[in-house]
Design goal:
The chain is mainly α. Helices cover 69% and strands 0% of the residues. The longest helix is centred in the C-terminal third of the chain and has 18 residues. The two termini are 13 Å apart. 3% of the residues are buried.
């Protein structure tokens, strides 16, 4: 299902964010963007924009 969603909608993060897992998911995403930012791969701001777009796609398709 997650792979199907990723292919169908072009989502960046194929794993679902369930309401009761929301805080854990956000904590994991913060860890990811901190690592990406520290290594110079992607700024925190760019990652947050991608995550926001991802959540908007999920909201409009789900």
């Amino acid at each position: 299902m997650a792979l199907f969603s990723k292919l169908k909608f072009g989502l960046l993060f194929p794993l679902p964010i369930l309401l009761h897992h929301k805080n854990v998911a956000l904590m994991n995403y913060r860890t990811i963007y901190n690592i990406l930012d520290k290594r110079g791969i992607m700024s925190k701001e760019a990652f947050q924009v991608l995550l926001t777009e991802e959540l908007l796609i999920r909201a409009s398709t789900g």
